[in-house]
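Researcher: I need the complex structure. Ligand is zinc ion. Inputs:
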Amino acid sequence: MPGPADPARTVRLFEAYVRHVWPLHRRLVRARLARRCRRCAASERMVALGADGVCRLCAEAAAAGPVAARTPDRRAVDELEAILESAQGAGKGRYDALVLYSGGKDSTYLIRRVRERHPRLRLLAFTIHNGFMSPVALGNIDDLIPRLGVDHLLVRPRREFYVRLFRHCLTHLNAGGGYGTVDFSDGEFLLDSARRIAAEQGIPLILAGYSRYQVENGLGLRQFESPRERELADRTETAGIPLADIFPPDEVAHWWHGTRHPPAAVARLLFPLHAWDLEEEEVKRQVGAWGLLSRRSASPVATNHQLIPLLGVVDVHQLGYSSFEIELCRMIREGKAAVADWLHVFELLEHTARTGLFVRPMVEDLLAQLGLTSADVGVRFA
Ligand SMILES: [Zn+2]
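Model: Output:
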């Protein structure tokens, strides 16, 4: 039976509290909360606020004028379609493309669209279970994979591997906080696992449903394909931390070592959504039109992995705000999310992170699972 520390229960409590109690509660504790930009809700600890209550980033965006509507780069789209077309039947084994699959709308959209345009491309959907995946996300995958009509590979590495990775990252945060360290290295290992599986099974393509923003800001790429030299190289660090500091040699070997494979066996890594460059709303609408929205919760908080709230709490103590707010505030600034939906979420996270209000049992339980105490990550509930 899930106890009071059950992350899903804590998330539901948090979401109910934000809606029903926080609008009143916040008035009592306002003086102790960081000031936030009245346009994008960014904390004054993230970015300087002007006398008018507007942050520097919003002021700069206003001065630059309206953003031109995006026009997809025709050449990139054609180039991508040509690669997918010629990969049909090109795999040495049973598959031509390994597609990272999270059960979310972007990867669902990716599989469906590729299936439709390139029906002879033999796809293998791939999910890695990091030991902290939410039951909602797993349920979404179970729901959608049969309807997408593709083979699916779910890999669950032994628990100690991820515990070691997350424990080390959480106690060695870089400037990007939990997002830039724990979540980032989680994503790096997902990509590395895909690279290994593709090389081992003779699969020539890897497709990842990352948005244009994630590709450009998370991976630092300006095009839809990862540079060849990156794919052929060996990984030595993740999120700025040398792998040898985290893992014994046999576990360092689980990461990608491109030089151990003949170059012809190394897959091309593509990010089709970068070329297609769709608005989030368009992806949502299309996935809905295909009848592929999961019947289960679509709340991003509920589908994220279970360490995310813990990372938020640690971030508030280390940075003054959660590192996940950076991308959300950008979306608000660009009109893709509503400030009213997020301001109270950010405020309540800041408040509960400091006081422990209903998150304390979950935080302590997750830390114990990682072999850590509050003191190890600089968390002191007031
Ligand atoms: Zn702002």
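Model: Summary of the prediction. The first strand starts at residue 97 and ends at 100.
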